[in-house]
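Quick start: what a row looks like.
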Amino acid sequence: MSDQAFATVGVGEDDLVTGEAVALDLPAASVGMRILAGLLDYIIVQALLTGVMFLLIWLIAGIHDNAITTGVMLVGTLLVLVGYPTIMETMTRGRTVGKLAAGLRTLRDDAGPITFRHAFTRALIKVPEVYLFLGIPAIVACVISPRGKRLGDMAAGTFVVRERVSTRMPPAVPMPPHLASWAVSADIARLPDGLAMAVRTFLPAAFSMTPAVREQMGRQLYDEVMAYVSPPPPPGNHPEYVLAAVLADRRRRDLDRLVRDAMLRDRVIPMDPPELQQSAS
C-alpha cells in the first residue's frame, strides 16, 4: 500500500483533501441559511432593480416604440439579476451581502476560491432557477444534494459552506507510560508532514480496521518512523505504542520550544510602560 493511501486513512469519500492529505472540515450550508442569505440578496436586487428601472425610464422617455422599450427593460433586468451576484462573488471570492450576513461563502468543489466564470455561471442559472420558478428547483436540488448544491452550483462546480463554525482540535495522542523514559531520551528528528499526518490519522482509525490491515499498516508506518528515531525502542513493544510515544514526545518538545521562544521574546522585547498599556486599552 502506498504512502498516499496511508495518509488518507479515515478520510471520507465526500471529504475535501489537500495535497498534503489533510481532510478539510468545511460544513456545507444548510437550506435554511441559504434561503436566509437569498432573501437578503433578493431585497438588495429589488432595490437595485427599482433604481435601474427608474433610470431607464428616464433615458428612454422620448422613445415611443414598445418593442425597444420592452427590450431595454429586459436587458436592464437581466443585467441586475446576473450582474449583482457575479460582481459581488468575483470581488469577494464567493460572498454576496446576504452570504456575508449569514456567514456563508461559495467555494469550488476542490475548496478553492471561485473566479468570474464560476460566479457568472451560478448567476446565469439562478435567473430561471430562483426568479422564474420561485426557487423551487433550487430548494429541491439543495435537499437532494449531499453538499446542498443548487442547480447553479452543479453547473459551475461549486458549493456553499458555513464560515462561522466552532472548531475543536483533535485530542492529543497520549504517551504510553512504559515508553515515556525512552521517548524523552531518544533523538527524534522532525517527521515529514505526510508521514506525521499518516500516523496521526492511523492511530485513532486503527480500532475500526480489520486485524490484518491494522497489522500491515502499523508495521509499515513503524518502519518509516524508525528512520527518524535513534536509538530504537526497547524490544517487545507493539508498533502502535511506539508510534504514539513518538508523536506524544514530539508534541511535548514543540510545546517546550514555543515556551522558550516566548520567554526569549519577552526578555529581548521589553513590555510597554504601564501608562502606554492603559492608553492602548
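That is the whole record. Residues 239-268 form the longest helix (30 residues). The radius of gyration is 28 Å.
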